[in-house]
# Entry
Amino acid sequence: CAMAMDRDELNKKRLARAAQRKKQLEQQRKLKLRLILAAVILVVCGVAIFALTPGGSDSPTVQQPSIPGQTLPPETAPPTEPPSRHQLDPTTVIHIKAAGDLNITDKVVAAGNSPLGYDFTKAFLDVAPVLADADLTMLNLEGIFVGEPYGTATRSAPRELLRALDASGVDLIQAANSYSVYDGISGLNTTLSAIRSAGMEPVGAFASNEEFRRTKGYTICDVQGIKVGVVAFTKGMDSLGLPAGSEDCVNVLYTDYFSTYKDVDTEGITQVLKDLRSEKPDVTIAMLHWGSEYNDTISESQEKIAKLMLDEGVDITLGTHSHMVHQVVFDEEKNTLVAYSLGDFFGDGEKGGSNYSIILDIELTRDNTTGITKITDYGYTPIYTLNETECDGQRRVVRIRHAMDAYALNYVDKVTKACYASMENSLKRINARVNGE
# Structure
């Protein structure tokens, strides 16, 4: 497979990103101080020249005699105000990256087996540069962290998985999905605490009704001065209902979320988004766990919810749950983007279409003069989940194009010939699905 960095290099990259931003801010601060000092010097010089010039503003202009061969110095320019931050930085550009579902199963847990205990570093090693090279990175994690036994039956995973995601550059974890309350509200609380302890922030699920009321159901991120509001909702929780006294612990899309998924909770969704709008975010992102599993069809219910999101001020909608890549719709006129499904970021990949997906990259630009933030570009990195027989015996997620290049260049740990052919087909299918073909 493609070459990648080890754990120390990943941590260095993450720290380097923060150090680079700090350096840029320090350079901007020093530049402002220099400009202010230059302006002060100009003002002082101007006052001194004015004071030493005979007469005042009411005195008649005296024509100085010219001396042959002598060039008179130009008049001193009036002092100018130092440029404001907007003049120094007319725009601010950030990149937000989003991946799809990370499913906790027996095979996913086994991917972290190592002689010294669990270590999932290698599982994400090849895609870590993509995830980390963003200002804000998010994905949907379908599982809980409540201790052993681990795997498909409990949907519980070792906390080392969270540490590997954090080291790979992930910032936000969608916690509103099928397995939010798989171990009850106590399991939800343990999971939310584990995510935060690992250095990331859960979105869409709350430890209690009181926490929901306090946060009003959304998360605000300050990304290089751009205010990003993030909400997350799920269609349901594997037919489980929220117990009395904990009805608000997970944001849901339907009032009948534990059964038929027919009645959209318009009132509840609208209230969360209305409260978020009152924060005046520069951009609003909705992470939605919706649709049907292993289904290519975008349902009428999804279309209804997508319209509701747009009507209530959502700029970017990021879908998961179908385990397959669906269409990405960018409306340049309205400046909105809807990705109906990003596919499976990491899982078993046994069903057709679930072993490949994308990491979406959205560029946002704020005009610092007008204060308006827009989606100015988007792209994606095609990725693939290698099973144990396609490479060196360890399940992991890789960049398709890099892995194909490694095969063509005959790398020692290259993928198999059959895997290469599968990746070729996956690349075609990804491009067709993203474009709605």
Notes: Residues 315 and 336 are 5 Å apart (CA to CA). The longest strand covers residues 373-386. The longest helix spans residues 7-52. The radius of gyration is 28 Å.
